[in-house]
């Protein structure tokens, strides 16, 4: 069971490292009080 957990964790980490795309979530900006769709719209407007 531990080997499976470690294998899965390594897979997840490698997927995160490989990603060239950067994303944000509302929890990255808790004081803004934005939903995911509002945050997406904001990011799209400034990029």
Quick gist of this model?
With 47 residues, the protein is mainly α. Helices cover 60% and strands 0% of the residues.
Descriptive notes:
It is a single chain. The protein is an all-alpha fold and 47 residues long. It has one domain. Helices cover 60% and strands 0% of the residues. The chain contains two helices and no strands. The longest helix is centred in the N-terminal third of the chain and has 17 residues, at 2-18. The mean pLDDT is 91.
Which terms would index this structure?
60% helix, 47 residues, mainly alpha
**Main sheet makeup:** none
Q: What's the number of helices?
A: 2
Number of strands: 0
> How many domains make up the coordinates?
1
Helix content: 55-70%
| Amino- and carboxy-terminal Cα gap | 44 Å
The Cα radius of gyration reads 16 Å
Strand-helix topology:
Elements: H1 2-18, H2 36-46
